[in-house]
Amino acid sequence: xxxxxxxxxxxxxxxxxxxxxxxxxxxxxxxxxxxxxxxxxxxxxxxxxxxxxxxxxxxxxxxxxxxxxxxxxxxxxxxxxxxxxxxxxxxxxxxxxxxxxxxxxxxxxxxxxxxxxxxxxxxxxxxxxxxxxxxxxxxxxxxxxxxxxxxxxxxxxxxxxxxxxxxxxxxxxxxxxxxxxxxxxxxxxxxxxxxxxxxxxxxxxxxxxxxxxxxxxxxxxxxxxxxxxxxxxxxxxxxxxxxxxxxxxxxxxxxxxxxxxxxxxxxxxxxxxxxxxxxxxxxxxxxxxxxxxxxxxxxxxxxxxxxxxxxxxxxxxxxxxxxxxxxxxxxxxxxxxxxxxxxxxxxxxxxxxxxxxxxxxxxxxxxxxxxxxxxxxxxxxxxxxxxxxxxxxxxxxxxxxxxxxxxxxxxxxxxxxxxxxxxxxxxxxxxxxxxxxxxxxxxxxxxxxxxxxxxxxxxxxxxxxxxxxxxxxxxxxxxxxxxxxx
Length: 486
Ligand SMILES: CC(=O)N[C@H]1[C@@H](OP(=O)(O)OP(=O)(O)OC[C@H]2O[C@@H](n3ccc(=O)[nH]c3=O)[C@H](O)[C@@H]2O)O[C@H](CO)[C@@H](O)[C@@H]1O[C@H](C)C(=O)N[C@@H](C)C(=O)N[C@H](CCC(=O)O)C(=O)O
Ligand SMILES: Nc1ncnc2c1ncn2[C@@H]1O[C@H](COP(=O)(O)OP(=O)(O)OP(=O)(O)O)[C@@H](O)[C@H]1O
Ligand SMILES: N[C@H](CCC[C@H](N)C(=O)O)C(=O)O
Ligand SMILES: [Mg+2]
Description:
alpha/beta, Udp-n-acetylmuramoylalanyl-d-glutamate--2,6- Diaminopimelate Ligase, Chain: A, domain 1, UDP-N-acetylmuramoyl-L-alanine:D-glutamate ligase, Protein-Tyrosine Phosphatase, Chain A, 3 domains, six-stranded mixed beta sheet, 32% helix, binds ligand UAG, binds adenosine-5'-triphosphate, magnesium ion binding, ligase, ATP-binding, cell cycle, EC 6.3.2.13
């Protein structure tokens, strides 16, 4: 139990009604989660305004409220704290409530359009292998030194986030590696956290439904670096067009990595094949298990961050060379008849292009590439035609299908995708809304040696249709079909 007055440090409030001398049992920002003794934080959302639920929250037992506007009438003895930005206040309050766990860990955040999960997961695996106790916050799962806690978001809400960090401190963790999504930055989910380092992977098209323009998407990512403390490192991708922009206004220690440009940490690809990558990394040749140019960037970012965290260079390289990537990222299996199936989480135009160009680079001859791909419903519509265009131009056959239609009509999402395909490539594209049927068809088309790419769902174990998450697993489907091939 904490007193409201104990958790106000750093909260810029404009008015306090009450004494703040009340015991808080929990911090809640959804009235439906209120328990007696809660502090209710009213947030203005994209669908509704949390301020409209203050009265309900108080009825259900909230004893203090943080808000931007006072409600017209509320009955009951409640403390009110007025702030200019409730979401920002929530971050600080949550950190204070859990006794600022990020100050008792070395916390490293990874941001960028693609590669966050891969980089954060590799860092987590690497530092555990080097003998440290660690935590991980990622799209696939959260982990407290080996204990798995399912994740609901790429970056959890501030209360869940600080609770997880507090669990890590309790377990004696030295490090936490976390993904920092652009939504999380814009919604102040990371407010009040103390970072030891920040890593930027790349910036390409995604989430324009939420950020509206590429420029405001870029600004959201940059804010993360703008707010890093002087004691932290800020590591950027020198080969990305916006890599240097990210570090323009940071107080942190600036460092860079790159395969092409001048950078503090450099690598060169010597071999890139299904078996893995041979890199010349800071003048040493090392084989890694991960595949593809994009993973050369991820590995280099991890290597650089580990050195910035003062780890021994050769121990880092030995350990990194043994590691596999994150679940559902370029995972492949081979059928008895030698058809290769790859499950990958590519869900942006750039990721689709990267994964397909990697397949082209590493295939041995003229094996055909068959891509099964869909686009998420209730998400950025403008990436749909571009993803389909890229898939059609880089594959011998494309099956357009569904990927979490959510509340949208699957055939309509597919139509949005079809609109991006050049007439010259239409011939080798078919549309099958049922993802299971689409995968089955791809397997029927495939000849020995051909490569099937199932894009977009990666580790996901569901298909979200109208708010219901029906069990669906691309790898499971592929294994099922491959059993039938001989
Ligand atoms: C677009 C978006 O980010 N939405 C998030 C946002 O919801 P919202 O603003 O729409 O909330 P709202 O429904 O309008 O409600 C406003 C407020 O009123 C409250 N409320 C609402 C109803 C009620 O009865 N009582 C009540 O108190 C709500 O709890 C909320 O505090 O705030 C909610 C609470 O924090 C989040 O759960 C929700 O995430 C939704 C589920 C989501 O899908 N987010 C995705 C897009 C997301 O965040 N993705 C990123 C990264 C993706 C990537 O990896 O590339 C992530 O970090 O996972
Ligand atoms: N460094 C990279 N550059 C470009 N594409 C990448 C990179 N790393 C991975 N990818 C591609 O992007 C997909 C998603 O990778 P990953 O899950 O690591 O990214 P993420 O940033 O965590 O995505 P999300 O925004 O969904 O959390 C991979 O399956 C792969 O196709
Ligand atoms: N974290 C990303 C993942 C998208 C994955 C894809 N399977 C989809 O549902 O669109 C998002 O929420 O935009
Ligand atoms: Mg991720």
